[in-house]
Design brief:
rod-shaped; eight-stranded mixed beta sheet; Virus Head Decoration Protein, Chain: A; five-stranded mixed beta sheet; 341 residues
Length: 341
């Protein structure tokens, strides 16, 4: 067994010797920098490649990488990495496009001869400190792409601009804004009110109302109540309760077309809309005679009701409006044209 192994070793060694004797030695020459991955610069010469290794970090285009992988030397100019696509000039680009201009660029084809671009760019050369989303319409070559800014987010304050690079508020839109139909979209304002219907020039009701605070329990009031100024608490209102009151100012609106709130007044959840101009339903009483369309109405003795005014000497400043309906007896609700006189 031992002699057989020796014979095999002799045969293998002989073959190796013959191969070595017949082979021509290849000499590789050249020089390089320590830490740089070498590359063949000719058939038998080597030199420095763009790749360097330093302390476990890899640099491409730099011999002193500051991170695990660094591309470029930080000297400015266009230092990008790219992943090409399969059609036209589509691809993904990441890196520095100029001094203080870093971006992620996505190029996609629309057909075999045209591609469009989308770029997310920070601190651009257009002197905008922040983030921009730019778009370029389809073009036949990379150099032909022409970018325009679609959205800007400023670094100072985080203001967002759509169609503008200098938003003057938290959100500024240079163009039209649309809420998707049927989506339930709405706009909520600083006072908590919500608007889901656009202004079309027509209102949903027939009057202008002022949002006012009422005295006492809010649940004691209802649409149609005639309201007067509360003499004991300035800024609040009461149900009327005296005939021919010159403190009358409006009617609790059933469905106001427009609602205002005097400037500086804090929003109160117990406030009610008081119609001051327009046509509204009002609670009326025939205690001073039947009411006919066109009659001037004043406050009645019945709290919250209006009646026909007949004493001309007491009507100055007491008229709440004109009757548009009729009431023969008792109490009821009719439409009234609010015309304070």
């Amino acid at each position: 067994m031992g002699s057989m192994n020796k014979r095999r070793g002799f045969v293998f060694g002989g073959w190796a010797l013959l191969i070595a004797m017949g082979a021509t030695a290849q000499t590789v020459t050249g020089s390089g920098t320590s830490g740089t991955v070498p590359v063949f610069t000719g058939s038998s010469t080597v030199g420095n490649s763009p790749i360097a290794v330093s302390g476990g970090s890899v640099g491409i285009g730099t011999t002193a990488p500051a991170t695990l992988l660094q591309v470029g030397n930080g000297g400015g100019g266009m230092q990008k990495i790219s992943i090409p696509g399969g059609y036209n000039f589509e691809g993904i680009y990441l890196g520095q496009y100029g001094n203080g201009d870093n971006a992620l660029e996505l190029i996609n084809h629309v057909n075999l001869s045209n591609s469009y671009g989308v770029k997310i760019e920070a601190n651009t050369d257009s002197s905008v400190d922040g983030l921009q989303i730019q778009v370029a319409s389809p073009a036949a070559s990379y150099v032909a792409l022409s970018y325009s800014t679609a959205m800007t987010i400023l670094a100072n304050g985080g203001s967002v601009g759509i169609g503008t690079v200098s938003p003057g508020a938290k959100l500024e839109v240079n163009g039209n804004v649309k809420l998707t139909s049927g989506s339930g979209a709405s706009i909520t304002f600083a006072d908590g009110t919500t608007q889901s219907t656009a202004w079309t020039g027509a209102v949903c009701g027939g009057d202008y109302a002022e949002l006012v605070d009422v005295a006492g329990n809010r649940t004691k009031y209802e649409p149609g109540d005639v309201l007067v100024i509360d003499p004991g608490d300035p800024g609040k209102f009461l149900k009327s309760g005296q005939p021919y009151s010159t403190s009358v100012l409006g009617i609790y609106s059933t469905k106001p077309g427009l609602v205002g709130r005097r400037q500086g007044a804090p929003r109160n959840t117990d406030a009610v809309p008081m119609a001051m101009v327009g046509i509204v339903p009002a609670k009326v009483s025939a205690e001073n005679g039947p009411i006919r369309p066109g009659d001037l109405l004043v406050t009645a003795a019945l709290p919250g009701y209006a009646m026909k005014g007949t004493d001309r000497s007491r009507m100055l400043g007491a008229v709440i409006g004109k009757a548009l309906g009729r009431l023969d007896k008792g109490t009821g609700v009719i439409e009234v044209g609010v015309t304070l006189q």
